[in-house]
């Protein structure tokens, strides 16, 4: 293995930071409220609230840049938000106010009369070309209770109005981490996933596997009889003659069978785990790791038991991933009020040889 | 450890040879790394094992001792290495490691900065994530631990992917040669906020930072410090000043067989009695877009 100078390594860094026409991106709408995929072409659009906006303005922009929905003469459009240096002075003010907060809500009555602007007024403002931010300021100015609220409460109010009247879109690179959030939100938990999301999942997995490895994706065939070995779809990067998403040629299948796979991931929540496992684990090289995801515990317990009695694997463990997100704000840090109660279960293990006779010494 | 050399790649055709590193598996909670040598001998409670019996067998083989006891010989992976490495410091385990690597958005070719190296548990997994053409630059302020880490990376065949430096990142920041070149940065420091200005300079556009700390106090200070400093630096915060913090927990379950005397036999599974309740808080942030 030749050693590269650190100069060579650093300058070869290839991750693109600017979008281009036709690239896949992840759109983060209103700070994580909604995350979805998109392909940036001149004609593609995104629907935010009840407004349809073209994604063209996003082409050629850096990942991490923000946009806001504005309404112009020709309808709603996405406008780039230029980062301002006064961005978080709010934070500094907050710190001071923390010490002196003496407001509370003892006199606030929630009877829907605080806001004097009507929706017609707001539409009128829009027609006259007001930006989303200006509308938010107007709402604040016309709220009889705003000044009486605590600083935290005012911040919460402002953010809520911004999400409605000036929704923001954050342009993100499509990494597997984010794809999981997006696809879970968009798909039914059935095995017939839409082709677009499979492509994008493969894109992400391709990114995360090295150029010298093959990622083989097995699609479920329409008949439940698992002749899946003959239905392998290949997504390798080195072999130029095989395109991602195509059915694998016989030589490739033969080579995979001869060498064995170096790892196995099974995530077929609606199918019987053991019937897949007993077909696929034998395709794994010895000492190769595997992981099986299932939404239910029992099928995995059965798999684990069977793998144990058939002496097919060791180091087996069923784990339950559990992620707790926190809201982190000064003096307001706590776990999110709502959280996912279950992420399904994972059975992991290492394949071993079945040979069991003691060797003569 | 990583299949950089195609002849060493794990496959049905790969055989254990002299000089290979194997992970000897006795039980799920008893494993150790062993360098195979022609005259080597392993002795444990299951008996005496001659390395020469192992040569020519595939990884994943079950091998027997003179008195009939057995062990398995496994190919080393970062996961197994994390379980067998010698602890010079408290380490990160696979539950945290997998979240960190995923959320740091590390792919092959990335440049990752890490401080501190500790015992090299996370570093080993980072190396795999960036292979074959990326690199991990890791720093520890303890000279001896840095040297031990370097030795470990030699043993596991990762020295072409990992460079260990001795440096006090909290006090001095990362070296200038990395300015604007890091895709991701990982911090496991007692006072990570002191390193933040340096991290902001090191990260590429849209780069990701992760800071690990067992203490909630640490990430509250991390956040507060940003808000005070933000006016001066103008370049470092998440998109609206909030850092999402994740606490992860993996509960292990081991299958227990059902009552053997009654029929039909049922498989029962339940959680282990004693579970790891807390390792630390992970704080992630992205470099704010300022172009």
From TrEMBL, chain A:
The keyword tRNA processing applies. It is found in: Nucleus. Keywords: Nucleus, tRNA processing. Its main location: nucleus. Residues 188-213 are annotated as: Disordered. Belongs to the TRM6/GCD10 family. InterPro entries: SAM-dependent_MTases_sf (IPR029063), TRM6 (IPR017423). The lineage of its organism: Eukaryota, Viridiplantae, Streptophyta, Embryophyta, Tracheophyta. Residues 189-199 have a biased composition (Polar residues). This is tRNA (adenine(58)-N(1))-methyltransferase non-catalytic subunit TRM6. Coiled coil: none annotated.
Automatic annotation (TrEMBL), chain B:
Keywords: Methyltransferase, Nucleus, S-adenosyl-L-methionine, Transferase, tRNA processing. Its main location: nucleus. Pfam families: GCD14 (PF08704). Residues 69-216 form the tRNA (adenine(58)-N(1))-methyltransferase catalytic subunit TRM61 C-terminal domain. It is an enzyme of class 2 (transferase). The keyword Transferase applies. Belongs to the class I-like SAM-binding methyltransferase superfamily. TRM61 family. This is tRNA (adenine(58)-N(1))-methyltransferase.
């Amino acid at each position: 293995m030749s050693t590269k100078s650190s100069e060579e390594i650093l300058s070869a860094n290839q991750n693109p930071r600017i979008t281009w026409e036709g690239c896949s991106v992840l759109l983060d709408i209103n700070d994580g409220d909604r995350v979805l995929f998109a392909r940036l072409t001149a004609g593609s659009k995104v629907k935010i609230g009840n407004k349809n906006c073209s994604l063209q303005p996003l082409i050629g922009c850096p990942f991490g840049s923000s946009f806001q929905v504005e309404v112009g003469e020709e309808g709603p459009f996405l406008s780039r938000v230029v980062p301002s240096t006064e961005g978080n002075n709010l934070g500094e003010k907050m710190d001071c106010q923390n010490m002196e907060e003496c407001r509370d809500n003892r006199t606030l009555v929630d009877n829907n009369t605080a806001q004097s602007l009507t929706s017609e007024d707001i539409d009128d403002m829009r027609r006259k070309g007001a930006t989303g931010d200006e509308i938010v300021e107007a709402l604040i100015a016309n709220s009889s209770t705003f000044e009486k609220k605590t600083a935290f409460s005012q911040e919460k109010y402002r953010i809520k109005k911004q999400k409605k009247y000036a929704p923001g879109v954050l342009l993100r690179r499509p990494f597997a981490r984010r794809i999981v959030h997006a696809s879970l939100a968009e798909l039914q938990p059935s095995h017939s996933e839409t082709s677009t999301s499979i492509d994008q999942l493969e894109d992400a997995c391709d990114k995360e596997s090295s150029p010298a490895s093959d990622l083989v994706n097995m699609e479920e065939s329409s008949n439940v009889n698992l002749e899946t070995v003959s239905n392998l779809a290949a997504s390798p990067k080195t072999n130029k003659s095989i395109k991602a998403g195509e059915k694998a040629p016989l030589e490739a299948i033969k080579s995979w069978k001869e060498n064995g796979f170096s790892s196995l991931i099974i995530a077929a929540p609606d199918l019987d785990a053991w019937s897949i496992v007993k077909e696929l684990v034998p395709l794994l090289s010895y000492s190769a790791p595997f992981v099986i995801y299932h939404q239910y515990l029992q099928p995995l317990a059965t798999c684990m038991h069977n793998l144990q009695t058939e002496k097919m694997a060791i180091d087996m463990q069923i784990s339950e991933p559990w992620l707790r997100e926190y809201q982190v704000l000064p003096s307001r840090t706590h776990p999110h009020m709502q959280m996912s109660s279950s992420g399904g279960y994972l059975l992991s293990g290492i394949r071993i040889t079945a040979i069991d006779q003691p060797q003569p010494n | 450890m990583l299949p950089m050399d195609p002849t060493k790649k794990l496959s049905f055709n790969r055989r254990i040879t002299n000089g290979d590193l194997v992970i000897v598996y006795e039980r799920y909670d008893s494993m150790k790394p062993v360098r195979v040598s022609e005259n080597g001998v392993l002795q444990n409670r299951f008996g005496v094992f001659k390395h020469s019996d192992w040569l020519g067998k595939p990884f994943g083989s079950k091998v027997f001792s003179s008195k009939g006891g057995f062990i398995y010989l496994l190919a080393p992976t970062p996961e197994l290495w994390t379980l067998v490495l010698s602890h010079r410091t408290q380490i990160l385990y696979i539950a945290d490691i997998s979240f960190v690597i995923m959320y740091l958005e590390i792919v092959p070719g990335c440049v990752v900065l890490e401080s501190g190296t500790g015992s090299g548990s996370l570093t080993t997994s980072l190396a795999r994530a960036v292979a074959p053409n990326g690199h991990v630059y890791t720093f520890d302020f303890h000279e001896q631990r840095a040297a031990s880490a370097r030795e470990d990376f030699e043993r596991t065949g990762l020295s072409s992917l990992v460079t260990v430096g001795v440096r006090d990142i909290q006090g001095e920041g990362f070296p200038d040669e990395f300015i604007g070149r890091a895709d991701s940065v990982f911090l496991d420091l007692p006072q990570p906020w002191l390193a933040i200005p340096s991290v902001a300079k090191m990260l590429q556009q849209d780069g990701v930072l992760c800071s690990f700390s067992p203490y909630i106090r640490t990430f509250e200070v991390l956040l507060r410090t940003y808000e005070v400093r933000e006016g001066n630096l103008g370049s470092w915060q998440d998109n609206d000043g909030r850092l999402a913090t994740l606490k992860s927990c993996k509960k292990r379950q081991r299958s227990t067989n059902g009552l053997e005397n009654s029929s039909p036999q049922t498989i029962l599974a339940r959680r282990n009695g004693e579970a790891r309740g807390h390792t630390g808080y992970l704080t992630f942030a992205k470099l704010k877009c300022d172009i």
